[in-house]
Amino acid sequence: MLVAVNVLSTCMFQIQFVLLISRQGKVRLTKWYSPYTQKERSKVILVYKRYASLYFCMCIDQDDNELEVLEIIHHFVEILDRYFGSVCELDLIFNFHKAYYVLDEILIAGELQESSKKTVARLIAAQDSLVETAKEQASSISNIIAQATK
Amino acid sequence: MALSGMRGLSVFISDIRNCPNKEQERLRVDKELGNIRTRFKSEKGLTHYEKKKYVWKMLYIHMLGYDVDFGHMEAVSLISAPKYPEKQVGYIVTSSLLNENHDFLRLAINTVRNDIIGRNETFQCLALTMVGNIGGREFSESLAPDVQKLLISSSCRPLVRKKAALCLLRLYRKNPDVVNIDGWADRMAQLLDERDLGVLTSSTSLLVALVSNNHEAYWSCLPKCVKILERLARNQDIPQEYTYYGIPSPWLQVKAMRALQYFPTIEDPNIRRSLFEVLQRILMGTDVVKNVNKNNASHAVLFEALALVMHLDAEKEMMSQCVALLGKFIAVREPNIRYLGLENMSRMLMVTDVHDSIKRHQAQIITSLKDPDISIRRRALDLLYGMCDVSNAKDIVEELLQYLSAADFAMREELSLKAAILAEKFAPDLSWYVDVILQLIDKAGDFVSDDIWFRVVQFVTNNEDLQPYAAAKAREYLDKPAIHETMVKVSAYLLGEYSHLLARRPGCSPKEIFSVIHEKLPTVSTTTIPILLSTYAKILMHTQPADPELQKIVWAIFNKYESCIDVEIQQRAVEYFALSKKGAALMDILAEMPKFPERQSALLKKAEDAEVDSAEQSAIKLRAQQQMSNALVVTDQRPANGAPQTVGELSLVKIPSMSGDQHASVDQGLSQANGTMTTVDPQPASVDLLGDLLGPLAIEGPPGAAVQFEPNAVSGLEGVPSSADYAAIVPVGEQTNTVQPIGNINERFYALCLKDSGVLYEDPNIQIGIKAEWRAHQGRLVLFLGNKNTSPLVSVQALILPPVHLKIELSLVPETIPPRAQVQCPLELMNLHPSRDVAVLEFSYKFGTNMVNVKLRLPAVLNKFLQPISVSAEEFFLQWRSLSGPPLKLQEVVRGVKPLSLTEMTSLFNSFRLTVCPGLDPNPNNLVASTTFYSESTRPMLCLIRIETDPADLTQLRMTVASGDPTLTFELKEFIKEQLVSIPTASRPPAPAPPAAQPTNPAALTDPGALLAGLL
């Protein structure tokens, strides 16, 4: 689960990128925390773990703590699991945007921002309800307009 | 099935999923991109819902790996939407689709700032997240103060503050100046008192970033980190939701320990004690359990604790305890733990005193060589290599040899190289060494590089006692039915030289030896045939009285190859034939090879190149970093077993009596005493070695003549400033210093001209180290000012006197350097146009009542702005012809050149990043090189150099330099001349400004830096 690979990197943040990839090689989520324009090659470590049909990969610097990152992956998966209710690859395909929301509550700048699953779940729920409320408002307005123009 | 809530998006995703192949998928994607493009272009405004849907599709397509080069504007524009749902999409898609270098981002800065300083908490969160993920330098400059305000605001809720902390971390990384150290250090310490663990985790990450750059300012945070660790270790005030598989936030524990590793030491005994209590608890309390996640999390903490223990130089007892723990992990079932156990054990090798405890686990480590996981096998190999010494070399090397036949192909080359090096370094007796190498060639010939057999030949040549043994062994291997070509080479060589020593043994008559070697000839390639021919000639020569029958056979062979298409073979055949006809006169010419001059093993260099990834290397790096911060040693980055190696080598081989060698070894000894990095340039050694071995064996005569220049080659350029006259760094009038520098300042300067880190200056009070990175025309130097005393150095001042062609910015140098502390002063540097002038650092400090003032040249010299490049013959000649004459192409006959052989000159050129292109010039006495020069005015500029030497008189040569810029051509020519002429740089007149350089460099005479550099 720990593999040393060569990639182009600037080595600035703990986690340089996150990649979800299926066993067939289809990408399900990508998130880059460093731009990869510089041509320097440096050794980095790819930490990955497979859950059913999906590989969760995070790329870190070789001096970083690999096991810590391995558990960040698991932490992410547990939160997805809680959010989708026993998450499967299909959930992540059709709701890839939700996976991005969740990831943004866990990592910023390639660093862990929240280690409480409860807190993350609460924040995501709050966001969802904001979106819902907005939708309801919009539809009620369009109802009113529809009524008025009848 | 969960659906996205947007029908169009779901349909698109389904379509993509239903594509039977990549071709179809591309078609579907192209169609969708076309559709989105028209919708965005159409005059009819899109509703927010539509916009949202399209940007999601764009992100999806982008995620699949297709280029999405339009519509960025639409994504960015959603950020300014008034409602949450649109804004959220805008922020998330923008931060995934764009990166910090995108111009569109700049358009959003104002909107983002308004969201950050606005009252809406959810908007604040969105904005902080995006800036934290992709904010660049410009964001850094315009937003940092606002983000700082949010982080310390008492009215903000934790959800905003934790995001602000990480956002600030990114802004700081993009531009460290945005965090004002004086003002921020106290705030940072306060942040670590935070109760909310989310905010605390983020803040600790921020701290790690801050202290990694500059720990000095943040001493007040050190006790707080220890407090955090205590709080977590005792599980005090940790809400249930922050424990992970029963462990109080493992991530926060790791981060706090990481931060502590950036502080050189912990001086306060109370804090140190509390910390060690926590560490002890972690070391003792971690067990291997069934649950994988709990295991990983607790071991993540444990390995970080180990790193911290090593960093703090704990007592031997605790270190041994760590080794014992690691030994336990190596035997564990869980592969990740096994891997990390081995890796960390390798790091432990850097700690003195624990080697014996590590050796206790040797058997287990050897077992790991057979692990099913290749990463683990590699780590085991690294560890065995690192832990090998005289006491266990035999066991370990034999184990490696045994493993060689079973090892994966991917590992064999590294494995054989390592076995060869260990055998050489730690051989209890030399015959064992020969055994090992021959076995190695026998078992893994394909993976044994030439260097390895060259080396064994060198050893045998230099040790008379070994010669009969080696020859007998070689003879034995030749009896094997199928042997590797390398084995043919090495046995043929050894038997050619020493088979006469075996004459009385059965099966070893000249004729028998000849025929057993000749049997192999049909099976070998053209590179081996010349060696065989030499062997035949040598056998003939040794056969006294001559055996007419053998002579006839061998002559027939020489005859046959006289018309061989391969020039090397042809030449040897002709020459040997003619020579062997001469009878007794032959004896001198074909006599045994003289001893080789003592050299650093070329293998070691190769090993270093071969495994940049090994744990050992990263441990060296780690250690080097630590040394920089606490031990004030910046230079000695030799591999762990580099030091015993020199000793081992010298004692292993009898030192041959050639004067050149003694110089070389003395040189080496001196340089080590000085503490500078080894001055031996491995390059000439390996090049020479090849020349010696593959050149016609005896025709060139003994290498005595070449050896006489050995000291020059070995000491490289440091040898240049041999006169002490100009060594004074202070102009005579100002010689008020009573403090004498340690080591030769000029030598240090010249050494640093060739490498990028090392000591620039040292005296009893201070050591100034330097570390440089060069990129095109820019450079970044860090000065490490280390106070060696137990009392502070005050009135520290550093002033840069730059020559006009360099733009240099030195960051603030603190006035006081605390006792035994080291401060780092970064220095940004830009090369404006070509010039050889040197920048000078005027450095002064007060120690007691002494005012010490030194002027040091900075190694920001012309060759640092060169990038090696090799060009093809066509490119070279095209360019060479197009630059037809002065001022772009200049030629000069240089006299008084240090006599260097072409190989030595080649390595000298290569060390200055002038790539020598062998074979371009048809005349073998000439040398052609190319390089690229970078400066702001010239941009990358190709430079071509040709040196024509006169083999009859090595002290003169003709040099031609060409480039597209007249100043550059002139400066580069002068620069190379300075390196070649024995009169060192420093003695040239202050302002030699040539007519060509004059117009572009009018300030040269009035520029204080340039003047000073000229004087030095």
Structure, explained:
The complex is a heterodimer of chains A (150) and B (1016). Chain A is an alpha+beta fold and 150 residues long. In chain A, the strands form two sheets. A five-stranded antiparallel beta sheet of chain A has the order 1-4-5-2-3. In chain A, strands 6-7 form a two-stranded antiparallel sheet. Chain A has helices at 66-84, 89-94, 96-106, 117-149; strands at residues 2-8, 15-22, 27-32, 41-51, 54-61, 107-108, 111-112. With 1016 residues, chain B is of the alpha+beta class. Among the domains of chain B are: 464-590; 602-715, no CATH class; 725-860, Gamma-adaptin ear (GAE) domain (Immunoglobulin-like), CATH 2.60.40.1230; 863-982, 2-Layer Sandwich (TATA-Binding Protein). Helices cover 54% and strands 11% of the residues of chain B. In chain B, helix 11 (197-213) packs parallel to helix 13 (250-260) and helix 12 packs antiparallel against helix 13 (250-260). Chain B is globular. Chain A: One of its GO terms (molecular function) is clathrin adaptor activity. Chain A: Its main location: membrane. Chain A: Belongs to the adaptor complexes small subunit family.
| Ends distance of chain B | 79 Å
Mean pLDDT of chain A: 83
User: What is the CATH architecture term of chain A?
Assistant: 2-Layer Sandwich
Strand content of chain A: 25-35%
Helical amount of chain B: 40-55%
Overall strand count of chain A: 7
* Mean pLDDT across residues of chain B: 78
